[in-house]
Amino acid sequence: MSSSLIGAEVVAELDRDSVPAGNGAVLTLRVSGARAAQPVIPEVENLIINPRGQSQQIQMINGRTTVSVRYNYVVGSNVPGDYEIPPIRVVVDGAELLTEPLKLKVLDAGAAQPPAGMAPQAPGAGGDDSPEAEGDEKRFGFLTVELAANDRKHAYVGEIAPVRIRAWLPENSRAQLRSGIKPESKAFTLHNVNDRPQQSTEIRDGKRYTVVTWYGGMSATKAGKHPASLSLDAVVAVRDNTAPRRRRGGPFDDPFFGGIFDDLSAPMIQKDVTLKSDDQEIEVRSLPVDGRPTGFSGAVGNFQFDQVEVPDEWVTGEPQRIGARLAGSGNFALMNAPEMVPGDVWKTYPGKGEFTPGDEASFSGSKTFHFNAVPRKGGKQEVSLAFSYFNPDKAEYQTITSPGKNIQVSGEDIAEDAPEPVAAEPEKPTDLPVGQHLQWTNQGSLVPLVSRPTFVFLLGSASLLAALGGVLAWLRTRRNDPRRIAAAEVDRISREALQTASRCAGAGDAAGFFAAARLAIQQRLGMRWNQPARAITLAEIEARLPGDSPVAEFFREADHHEYHPTPGGGILPRWQELLDEAFQYLNKEAH
User: How many CA atoms lie within 13 A of 471 on its CB side?
Assistant: First the structure.
């Protein structure tokens, strides 16, 4: 049982809850994190508590040092019965801390005892759980991973779900981490693991461990139950429990105690190990199709508008800059700029976003967008911004709107791009040909009409005109085909986006490069998959295309850059090469 204050902890525990009369249990009192005065051990009638020395322990993990002092006592009685050790008082940095009371049952001297020489076990621990009986991985430590949110036991596709990752190292061990935490399964991607882990001491399955805790995020691209397996390379040194034990004299000469006291001077065994987590499954659910807003671009989390900047005065046809900042928690990498409302009044152009993390794991924070907009209509207008996202806690899509702002737009309205006029069909003559009387006509040749050159010429001309009319009709139909018009518009937007990406690459603007290049690819895929381009995310791409395709690789690189910008903001050559490969892949798939 323990008592603690900020920076200090006092823990008192017995290594067993019952002993035969004439034998003893080991009482350990550990003080860590601050300086403490000598503990005051209370007296209990018929209970003997003898001190067995103290020791200082130093834990070093990745340069962080923790010092603790452990006081050892032997507790027992010659009189069978149930005993309670009252709270032990320890003064730490001038403050008094009390441990929880402990209970010990002293059995009749004839009660069965464990074989002599066996190391003591904590209550509830079996012989098969000893370090020697476990594999090397368990003996030198292991990992665990679990969802950090206590109210939810599942995640969604595209969501970066917060996870708690723990390294369990044996007590009194020393460890040096040699790698970052790595996912063992392709089902999950690990994000934003904080580089300053927390350290604590915990008991698990009757054993005491030094626990190093990281917080990070895991995301999956496919629905289902997937194993969340992680690994970590480390050098771990543990006590050699097989070293010879010394027998100690005194009224409580119990062979159980020798192993505990000898542990303080036992040699260390050092080994390069890979700590691994068990294959714990995490359920991943698909984002619902029903109720998905048209403006949804894949953002999963909980967001709100933090700031909106819209100029007061505009001129139709002239662009100005819009600024917006969204704050909250979630997958900021899949956030696109909010949309202008009402949409028919504005034409917007892709801009760039900048993410500012609010915590070490980048789960919370804000993202600032800057993009250009052109008003189409003059006069007084009320404008606002809208943003759609999926809230995993409420399991529903939500659309937030910024407060409306009244602006003045001068200039004439800009007409929408009108479709080209369709040529009118020629009017058919309404009068029928009038028959001629024989006496009013000249006498003609007796050569059959079909054999006359003039008829052959006219017939051929008519056939040619009919074929030409068919070609013109096909061209007119094709020119007005909505699919062709949409494809031409997608091609135009893609070309403009690629030109913007090329300019950003020349200027060293990595964020603008990825935003424009992502839009170009989204336009091509949106036309092929018949869905809004900006709603296409990495999760959608990996579900429809091979995971090793250049398109998926480019989107992964773009998402990674959102959280880990390249120092100096330059454009790496491999990014441009990957973009070229992505479009070569799309062109090849289209044919």
Answer: 6
